[in-house]
Design a protein that fits this description.
The complex is a heterodimer of chains A (about 110) and B (about 475). In chain A, helix 2 runs antiparallel to helix 4. The radius of gyration of chain A is 19 Å and the shape is flat. Chain A starts with a helix and ends in a 19-residue tail after the last helix. Chain A is about 70% helix and about 0% strand. Chain A has about 110 residues and is mainly α. With about 475 residues, chain B is of the alpha/beta class. Chain B has 2 domains: about 190 residues, no CATH class; about 170 residues, TPP-binding domain (Rossmann fold). In chain B, about 60% of the residues lie in helices and about 5% in strands. Chain B is built from 16 helices and 6 strands. Chain B has a 6-stranded parallel β-sheet. In chain B, helix 5 packs antiparallel against helix 6, helix 5 packs parallel to helix 7 and helix 8 packs antiparallel against helix 9. The longest helix of chain B is centred in the N-terminal third of the chain and has 29 residues. Chain B is elongated. Classes of the chains: A mainly alpha (about 110), B alpha/beta (about 475). At the A-B interface, helix 1, helix 2, helix 3 and helix 4 of A face helix 1, helix 2, helix 3, helix 4 and helix 8 of B.
Chain lengths: ~110, ~475
């Protein structure tokens, strides 16, 4: 075991605790946006995908890299946009002009 | 650890900033008033992390792994293609279809995490480099968990869409549990072989194939109503897979983000399972079985059902002071969210105080019913959680149950019934109860609902949407 691994395990353990602490404060009313929001957050995998795709290598590695980046991008863009669409529907008072198909923001 | 170049230092700080933004964004999710900002903050953190990564590759000297033209084309094409697809689906999806979309996004996230590890392993294989134990552990775990999530989420999504090849009812494969067990064995034996210090592409591919099929056989037997648990669990898996990808690439921001999502999924899984009165294991082992063997002893047999008409119901509602509406998934299936809000508007115009009591498992994913009602312009202060509203049923003149069944069954308070111990809404504490329902059919648990034979209960036999529309008209006419 090297220092790097211990360092990463420390980060993992602390992040799990932060996750439990923060998430348990989210009201059940917001659990669907929470899930789609955390879904978008795991789209951070795109950073890894970009790093891997950039290095290139064999033809297969290139194709896999392309798919990984595309998957990550779907995850990030779709996740955040759909979460925003849901959250803007939660209003204290009903909208003045009821617009069921309110336009989402990118 | 070696000293970093200035570029690498700055990039790592940007990644850290991204991780901090994720945590701060999630903290703001604790209230509907700040949640939208929180999401934007997380999105900002993501943008910073992605831009930093691209800058990192842009300025990295070629001899230490700089990116060539093909690499840039791949990255640009991937982002354009994926981003466009994600944007389009996110903008066009209907709110009722949210569970399957979240499931799809979950699938691609898990898939990307698995691909990173596969790509990494191909590189090691090409150069015949034997990975250290820690890299090989992370790589195999990433491939296994990511692949299971990928196919599992695709199947779950298909079930939620009601596709023919993936029916929402449990699919029992003959000897399915045997197959699943055998696949798990292949994965474990293969993993141990690789961890023992062997470099073998065929074994890695075997593990990959087994994990992909495992995801299918694991999810197929699970019934539609158990989906909230399954989606939460798969969400947690993806988080774990992303954290593992962080170990493969020595990238801390992936570890942090993955851990946050893993924890979030775990919490939601536990919450959903307990709200459905089933253990996670019981649900994953699958099928409709388990927990539903015996029909309630001392049930409501022989009780009489009182049916009421639209006008009676309208009068009760219109002259009440406090009305609590109890919506279930049946309401969403009937697309009656707007009808129920219209009824609430009519009642409020007459000075009636209206609230909605929302059970945690109302819908096909955690919190789904809240989103559906928010879309119908129900103000969120009226959307009340179970623990919060239960004490108020005593003061409610009328509880109006639409499309909810098992979660209102008082039998849950007694031992010895399939719903025993399940947290329920205390609908029977209200002064009077109106249940809008098409027939006396049973709910998911397959038992009679004792609420329906309660002397205080009037059954309004109608389709949810039509019944509510008739109620609106009748209240207006008063």
């Amino acid at each position: 075991m090297n220092a790097q691994l211990i360092h990463e395990l420390t980060v993992l353990a602390l992040a799990v605790f932060v996750g439990f602490e923060v998430i348990s404060k989210v009201p059940t009313m917001l659990h669907t946006p929470l899930m789609s929001g955390t879904n978008a957050i795991h789209g951070i995998v795109i950073v890894g995908a970009i790093l891997v795709a950039g290095v290139g290598g064999s033809g297969i590695a290139t194709i896999l890299g392309l798919i990984a980046v595309a998957f990550g991008a779907i995850n990030v863009v779709g996740g955040f946009v759909v979460t925003d669409r849901m959250l803007q529907m939660f209003r204290r008072k009903p909208a003045a002009t009821p617009a069921p198909e309110s336009k989402p923001q990118a | 650890m070696p000293d970093l170049t200035l570029l690498e230092t700055l990039v790592r700080i940007a990644w850290l900033a991204g991780a901090v933004a994720f945590v701060l964004g999630l903290i703001q999710m604790n209230s509907p008033a700040t949640a939208r900002n929180g999401n934007l903050l997380s999105a900002g953190g993501m943008a910073v992390a992605i831009v930093a990564t691209i800058v990192f590759l842009l300025f990295r000297p070629t001899e230490t792994g700089g990116v060539n033209v093909i690499g840039w084309v791949i990255i640009a094409a991937g982002i354009a293609l994926g981003g466009g697809l994600g944007l389009y689906t996110a903008r066009t999806v209907k709110m009722t279809a949210m569970p399957q979309l979240v499931s799809l996004f979950n699938a691609v996230g898990g898939g990307a995490a698995a691909l990173i590890a596969i790509d990494d392993y191909l590189g090691l294989n090409a150069t015949s480099t034997l990975p250290s134990l820690q890299v090989s552990v992370a790589t195999v775990l990433d491939i296994v968990i990511g692949s299971i999530t990928f196919t599992g989420s695709l199947i779950a999504s298909g079930k939620l869409m009601g596709l023919k090849i993936t029916p929402s009812k449990p699919v029992m494969i003959p000897g399915g549990q045997l197959v699943t067990g055998a696949l798990a064995l292949i994965v474990v034996v293969g993993a141990v072989y690789l961890w023992a210090g062997n470099l073998s592409l065929p074994v890695m591919l075997l593990i990959l194939a087994a994990a992909l099929v495992f995801g299918v056989t694991m999810t197929l037997p699970i019934g539609g109503a158990d989906m909230p648990v399954v989606i939460s669990l798969l969400n947690s898996f993806t988080g774990t897979a992303v954290a593992m990808a962080g170990f493969v690439l020595d990238n801390v921001v992936l570890i942090i983000a993955g851990a946050l999502v893993g924890a979030s999924g775990a919490i939601l899984t536990r919450l959903m399972a307990s709200a459905m009165n089933r253990s996670v294991i019981n649900i994953m082992v699958g099928g409709f079985g388990g927990g539903e063997g015996t029909v309630a002893a001392g049930g409501p047999e022989g009780g009489t059902v009182r049916s009421i008409g639209i006008d009676d119901a309208a009068i009760q509602l219109a002259y009440a002071q406090n009305v609590i509406i109890v919506p279930g998934y049946g309401l969403a299936v009937a697309q009656a969210q707007h009808a129920v809000r219209e009824l609430a508007d009519q009642l409020e115009a007459r000075g009636v105080n209206v609230n909605y009591a929302i059970h945690p498992v109302a819908g096909r994913m955690p919190g789904h019913m809240n989103v559906l009602l928010a879309e119908a312009n129900v103000p969120y202060p009226q959307l009340r959680e179970m623990e919060d509203i239960n004490p108020e049923f005593e003061r409610a003149d009328v509880a109006l149950v639409v499309g909810a069944n098992d979660v209102t069954n008082p039998a849950a308070r007694r031992a010895g019934t399939p719903v025993s111990g399940m947290p329920i809404l205390d609908v029977d504490h209200a002064k009077s109860i109106i249940v809008v329902k098409r027939s006396m059919g049973r709910g998911y648990a397959g038992i009679d609902n004792e609420l329906y034979v309660n002397p205080k209960t009037g059954m309004l036999f109608a389709d949810a949407k039509q019944g509510l529309a008739d109620l609106v008209a009748a209240v207006k006419a008063l």
